[in-house]
Amino acid sequence: MSQNPEINHWRYSNFITNKNYEFSRENILKILPEELIEDAYKVISRWDSYSPTPLLNLDKLNKKLNLGNIFYKDESKRFGLKSFKALGGAYAVEKVSSGKKDIIISTATAGNHGRSVAWGSKRLGLKCKIFISEFVSECRANEMRKLGAEVTRVHGNYENSLNECLDQSKKYGWQIVQDVAWKNYEIIPKLTMAGYSVMIKEITTQTDQYITHIFLQAGVGGMAAGSVAGVANYFKKIPKIIVVEPESADCVLQSIENGSIKKIDIIKESVMGGMSCGEVSLVPWKILKNAVNHCVTISDDNVAKTVAMLANCNFANEKIVGGECSTPGVISLIASCNNDDVKKQLKIDNNSNILLIGCEGNADETLYDKLLSEGKSQI
Using CA atoms, how far apart are residues 176 and 279, in angstroms rounded to an integer? Predict the structure, then answer.
């Protein structure tokens, strides 16, 4: 157990081992082919203003937990969009438009995916229609409008906004660019996942340390599965893979326990809004169901404190702007080290090199400032 009063009480809500674990590079790269993964990097790395996002070392947290290294992939600086999603939606827009200027792009979003699609559409001179739920902040909506998108707010949750997007797109012939897959709609979600794999490619050029563990956030599972496919394609050794979800939206965990996709009802929205999803997406599920070692869930209790501790240089020697969905990896790693049985199961020790994905910065500035203020009062 970590001997640090400010964090030694942090715990999981739930922790499970995947009984069907069997990591197969061959099977994963059949689902998300190597050619597509390589093309994503080739295309994205040629975009104006492209540069790899930083791979930071959380030195101070590492000293507290007595590990080998804790690497933090800082996506707050991705193309000025403050999120890893800049890689996926924009890449998918470029591939599906194929140089055409007369198509209209549409999508439903909780925020960051829509921003990427809007940006991708703007850079190609395309019109963009975005549908959001009543739970998406006006701050996020305005960021999409600034990129030229027409934003429509729909009563209800994300699923309601998606259904409205599907209905309108079918009616008017718009091209849907969604990061969620369903039956007969898999190609475009694969494009977004291939975009996310660019993070893993970059990491291979940023450290020569063997990554022993990766903690991956999951909503519908696109980032987690895209990262796993990147690992299958680029990593020589396969690390332990741990998926982290909010306790109120544990669709991946419950599906892995169930052995098939299980849709859950979200009774209360998590502050980690981009991860508050009731059903794992079809294509990510095909990858995650066998490639994930463990699933964990966390409450919202330590999100604000983690946002503040990242910003306050408590975990690293520099200020890190990490939004609410950047916190789960940090929280779950600390919780792992606070539970001797879990730490032993995960084989985390002073030789472990941990990878965390800081998937967003202050993408929602209003929410970020609120969490930062709350968190500062707790440290």
Answer: 19
b/e map 233-263, b = 16+ CB within 10 Å: bbbeebbbbbbbbbbbbbbbbbbbeeeebbe
Judge whether 6 lies within some domain: no
CA distances for 210 relative to 67, 69, 70, 111, 348, angstroms = 13, 10, 12, 34, 14
> For 253-310, what is each residue's pLDDT tens digit?
999 999 999 999 988 889 998 898 899 999 999 999 999 999 999 999 999 999 999 9
> Rounded to the nearest 5°, which phi and psi values hold at 167?
-65, -50
Which residue segment(s) compose the domain that 129 sits in?
85-181
In a shared domain, residues 360 and 248: yes
The last residue of a domain, from among 127, 160, 181: 181
Q: Do 141 and 279 sit in the same domain of this protein? A: no
306 and 172 within one domain: no
d(CA 86, CA 143): 13
